[in-house]
């Protein structure tokens, strides 16, 4: 296993954040393709298979490790940024949508974080970015967004991004709560993840919240997001489609408002 590089960082912004990574000479940070923002002269960019942790595993090992990322909907490749200059250099990465960036010191979090498959932003070289299958059958069949998740392992810094406001919750041993699967950003490896059916026929059919909750049980830490990107995208799509409703959600007053505004054609 590659030793994790020790990187310093600075977070900029409030709702549209970016993270600036400070690299000492020969230090490297890895990032998802498309997250790069800017970098100082002296930093060189290289496209690599997976997270680079399979560098000594041979060609087959590299392909196997990188190929697992396809199951999470990510690219086979990641980008490594290395400081080959003299003195400290900085490289910056931006979140892809409005929300927050969550810094994770894996050495202080048990060495393992499980997160949504699109939550990873960047990390110090040496952090392994893999996949985490939920072992329970019910979780696998009905887990939705939470079925196949990413896992971040190592003792370096890693960064997740999420939509809306971020809430951290520390669970005591045996303590549990229910949450929409899409609102999970990530949790430490000690947290137990399961799926629970929504009680009540009316709730299941007319509640509009889906048929299942995720149940997270302690001990451990959980990060939650108030606005999953899937929820935001579906709402925007419903407004963009012909006949899509605006505020009023299809009510009589809402329809009259659309007509008065010239949107009823």
If you had to describe this structure to a student in words, what would you say it looks like?
This protein is of the alpha+beta class and 265 residues long. The protein has a single domain, classed as Mitochondrial biogenesis AIM24 (Double-stranded beta-helix, 4-Layer Sandwich), CATH 3.60.160.10. The protein has five helices and 19 strands. The strands form four sheets. The chain has a six-stranded antiparallel β-sheet with strand order 5-6-3-10-13-8. Strands 11-12-9-16-19-14 form a six-stranded antiparallel β-sheet, with no helix packed on it. It has a four-stranded antiparallel β-sheet with strand order 1-2-7-4, with no helix packed on it.
For the termini, the CA-CA separation is 62 Å
Question: How would you describe the oligomerization state of the chains in this entry?
Answer: single chain
Helix content: 10-25%
User: What's the Cα radius of gyration?
Assistant: 21 Å
Q: What CATH architecture would you give?
A: 4-Layer Sandwich
Taking the sheet with the most strands, its summary is: 6 strands, antiparallel
Structural class: alpha+beta
